Structure prediction request, 228 residues.
Amino acid sequence: MKLINILYILCMAIIMTACEVDNYDAPDAGISGTVIDATTNKGLLTEQPNGFQIYYKEISDQYPNAQFRTFWGKADGSFANSKLFAAKYEIYPGSGAFIIPEHQTVTLASGKDMAVNFTVTPYVSIKNVSIAKSGSNDITVSFKLTKNAGTILDYRIFATNRTPLVGSEATDGVGGNAVTLTDDDLDKTITVARTGFASGKYWIRVGARCKEAPSSRYNMSEIFEITF
Prediction:
């Protein structure tokens, strides 16, 4: 009987310990900013989802082996995360079609947001883009590509009538497949036609890709909206 009582007391102690109130404050520090395209001095044009990620890890004696965590940026190059703990962090943008810049160190304070910007060099710059209707169901696309780094692979016309978030994750067959490029194709006007668009509104953009881009990500042009 005594053994049963002892076991009962031990079980109750374990239960009470497990039910103790969590006294840790919720994460309320924030970081936000923009990844800037060094060739335009504007926010880097990518796609959403899967344009780029922000890598961050806490720097402290308590966590000497902390690993980088990530969150996704937005299609206009901006990023924000308001659910971080107040602490010192190493941070940089990655997983995008650009050369990774120097890491920055920031100290976040509870209840406050810190602005941090990065300037990156995209693998490919897409310039002088023009997309216009050339018939009732056709378009003509012209543009120039400048390679800033890496090995050029191809370009592709992305087009869809399903969402304004047009890109490699949202495109239809009417945009066509990837077209292989060489260095001889660079810094020249490229003009292509695409046909077979149905009636309605489409979102269209140009993408170009280098071999070194992680996960075969494309550099992107601005988005054009065309109604047929």
